[in-house]
Amino acid sequence: MNATACGRSTEPGNACSSRSRPRPTQPGRSTGTSRSTPPSCGRISTPPVRAPIRRRRPRGGGGARGESSGRSRGGFTTKIHLSADGRCRPLSLIVTPGQRADCTQFRPVLEKIRVPRTGPSRPRRRPAGLAADKAYSNGPCREYLRRRGIRHTILEKTDSQAARLRKGSRGGRPPGFDEERYKKRNTAERAINRLKHSRAVATLTA
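Structure tokens predicted for Transposase IS4-like domain-containing protein (206 residues):
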């Protein structure tokens, strides 16, 4: 940016100046002074104004989106969806905002299971059996398990059971339920309790 200043040059740059000389006045016209001093002019260069540098955050880090923070009744919360084996060891894990429903992550959690085998063979991806909470007691979840051939024990919801009984014979048979296998469902809760000891883990358990 270039600026024009009148007077002496106060900053480095090209400047020009000339001495004042008297100019003859025209007859019948008075300027009020006999001498006129034209000002010296010079061009002064000023440094350009730089915009503030904004640092970009890395992908997946910082902010509510990167930390999977969502709004719920308790404020900003985070929910962990996981599957665990009989020894309370997590097999797959997905982190979502707190307002995300559990049943929406049922299929992604099961598809992330990878259990390594001994020797040069592919890891196991299908569990032998599954016990889940009644939050996953809906038609799409049960159909997905039947299609993959996974034996499952899921507690039926009270409203679903009442709707089935109202339909009579059209409601179909009740889903199978194994009480002994359902007792092992606490392995997932115990696995989440272990993760709670980490300060960087924000959980919401129902």
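The radius of gyration is 39 Å.
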